[in-house]
Amino acid sequence: MLTDAAIELRSVAPSLLMRAIKWLIARRPPVFPHDEAGFHAAMADRPLPADAPMPASFYRDFLVGGWDAAGHPVVTIHPKSGPADWHMLYFHGGGFVQPMFKVHWPLVAAMVKSCGISVTVPLYPVVPEADHAEQDAVADAAWATLAEHHYPAKIILNGDSAGGHMALALALRLARKGGPMPGKLALFAPWLDLTLADPAIAAVEPHDLMLKIGTLRACGAMVAGGRDPASAEVSPLYTPPEELALLPPTRIWTGRHDLFIVDSRTFVGRLSAAGVDAKLYEYEAAPHVFMAITPTREAKDVFALLKDFLAA
After folding, report:
1. What are the two backbone dihedrals, phi and then psi, of residue 159, each rounded to the nearest 5 degrees?
2. How many angstroms separate the CA atoms of 92 and 190, rounded?
3. pLDDT at residue 240, as a whole number
4. How far apart are CA 55 and CA 60, in angstroms?
5. CATH number at residue 73
6. Domain count, the chain
7. Number of other residues whose CB lies within 10 A of the CB of residue 30
8. Which of 31, 99, 152, 185 has the greatest count of CB atoms below 10 A from its CB?
């Protein structure tokens, strides 16, 4: 039973559609290999991965613009009626090593339509072909350009999985600099500790269809490069309270069949203790980044909560 006021269970059982899609996911080849050796084999001498192309229908359904940040492409999507009051800077997931997936585009479209917002999507370079400094440079440049053309307090940073890490890390860099801050922060199943140090995560692993501890630790070590993966610089879970206190209102959404649920609970507790307006929404038996399964009842609930968060 959850008793923390900062944590709310939104769904006590998975919807029928969620059950069906989980059944299909379990029978398909995994996005990430399920062991460390397989991960290293997949990364070795691979062809340069390419971002999934944006669907042609976006040009019909939205106003679409393209630009670049630190030499990498960025896409901005507005509602058909024009630029919205709130503008989201969204970072896609993929363990820092995978490009934009095909399923990320419908997720972006659903947020534009459901929340009536504009969304900017940086197509950042991936590890190991690039390194964390290049990824951070793209994030920083995208923010700087967006903040020049849109009131910063009406910008929300968002991302899923590793993209949630990127959104949070960007907010922390901005806070340390003392400049303009985004108005809000939304994190979808964020990867908060690249070492997955909490032993409680092992109990969730058998239920997670996509993520495995050994694979993620190997991936985290690759992403960290020469840095300490357990440092606050690399794993935002360990950010000091005085820095957490500088963050804007924050909402997190995570499924209970997701390895990252454990660290999400810890992090929202630390945010609340630091005085941040923070809340975690949980969904029973939902898999990693379940909100990308946009037709489900659970995903629609996420979009409704996100809309309410922006309206508050």
Report:
1. -170, 160
2. 11
3. 98
4. 10
5. 3.40.50.1820
6. 1
7. 14
8. 185
> Is residue 201 domain-resident?
yes
Q: Do residues 11 and 284 make contact, with C-beta atoms less than 8 angstroms apart?
A: yes
In a domain, 1, yes or no: no
Residue-wise pLDDT for 213-246, tens only, equals 999 999 999 999 999 999 999 999 999 999 999 9
Q: Is residue 123 situated within a structural domain?
A: yes
Contact predicate 15/295, CB 8 Å: no
0.90 surpassed by pTM: yes
Q: In whole numbers, what is the pLDDT of the chain averaged over residues? A: 96
Tell me how far apart the alpha carbons of residues 54 and 32 are, in angstroms, rounded to a whole number: 22
For residue range 56-79, what is the model confidence (pLDDT) as tens digits? 999 999 999 999 999 999 999 999
> What's the one-letter identity of residue 263?
D
State the residue range of the domain holding 293: 7-311
**Is the per-residue pLDDT at 269 higher than 70?**
yes
SS3 88: strand
The DSSP 8-state label assigned to residue 82 in this structure reads -
Distance of CA 20 to the CA centre of its chain: 24
* Mean local confidence (pLDDT), 163-168: 98
- The verdict on residue 159 lying in a domain is yes
